[in-house]
Design a protein that fits this description.
alpha+beta, endopeptidase fold (from Nostoc punctiforme), 2 domains, six-stranded antiparallel sheet, two-stranded antiparallel ribbon, 8 helices, globular
Length: about 240
């Protein structure tokens, strides 16, 4: 893993499902840390109904919205957490930014509204530590109240596309990044009219609709071995990566 916008996206997608706790950034939640957070209660987030649930997370990794990015930066530093700012602080120090309507099709740019940040993964989708009821999840850009985008000041933006995953047998246990990449690529084929069907919901889950779209793509290419529909081989990855 290196400091790049693509690796930031891959890292964040890999953390889908991690619980959200205000004031945390990927470290294992310790009781002493939690007690201090509850005492300080930033933003009055630690309500009486939340505290028992959060206490059950002691011993597990948790994060808040900007903490997800801080976690990535800490991993780059060998597990050393030295960067800790608010979501708004990161936005205000960014030098490349704009209103959400001008967002570039660039994976790894951040999207924000006051007090919150997510990471754009491309194709109209975002990965974000959304809140207590959601944890880290993938959401549709247009369904959330984002106001701005920006290049994060701690991230190096070195490419414009997500790298293809390794060829593999696709199944419900395939790593989430690989399935997200496949879903985004198939959606581009659907949008271009190369294959027909309804756009996939990008969630990183290899379900029936994703398998059907992959099968449609294989048949369009003339690759007729039906068992291969459930595999994502090097030729599929190469062709989809080129937009073919």
């Amino acid at each position: 893993m290196k400091n790049s916008n693509a690796d930031l996206v891959r890292f964040c997608i890999g953390k889908v499902g991690v619980p959200y706790v205000m004031g945390t950034n990927g470290r294992v939640l310790a009781k002493a840390t939690l007690d201090d957070l509850i005492r300080r209660n930033p933003g009055n987030w630690f309500t009486p109904s939340r505290v028992p649930v959060v206490r059950s997370l002691v011993g597990k990794r948790t994060t808040d919205c900007h903490g997800l990015i801080e976690w990535f930066i800490a991993e780059l530093a060998g597990g050393k957490w030295t960067y800790d700012v608010t979501a708004d602080g990161a936005f205000h120090t960014a030098t490349v930014k704009g209103s959400i309507g001008s967002i570039p099709e660039l994976p790894g740019v951040c999207v924000r509204y006051k007090g919150h940040v997510g990471v754009y993964i491309g194709g109209g989708y975002v990965v974000e530590a959304r809140g207590f009821d959601y944890g880290v999840c993938i959401t549709a850009l247009k369904k959330r109240p984002w106001t701005h985008w920006y290049k994060h000041p701690k991230i190096q933006y070195t490419g414009t596309a997500l790298p293809a995953p390794s060829p593999q047998k696709a199944s419900k246990t395939t790593d989430r990044y690989s399935v997200v990449w496949l879903q985004l690529a198939l959606n581009r084929q659907l949008a271009a009219g190369y294959i027909t069907g309804t756009a996939l919901t990008v969630d990183g889950v290899y379900g029936t609709k994703t398998a059907q779209a992959a099968g449609a793509y294989w048949r369009k290419k003339g690759w007729t071995r039906e068992n291969e529909i459930w595999g994502v081989g090097k030729n599929t990855l190469k062709a989809l990566g080129k937009g073919m």
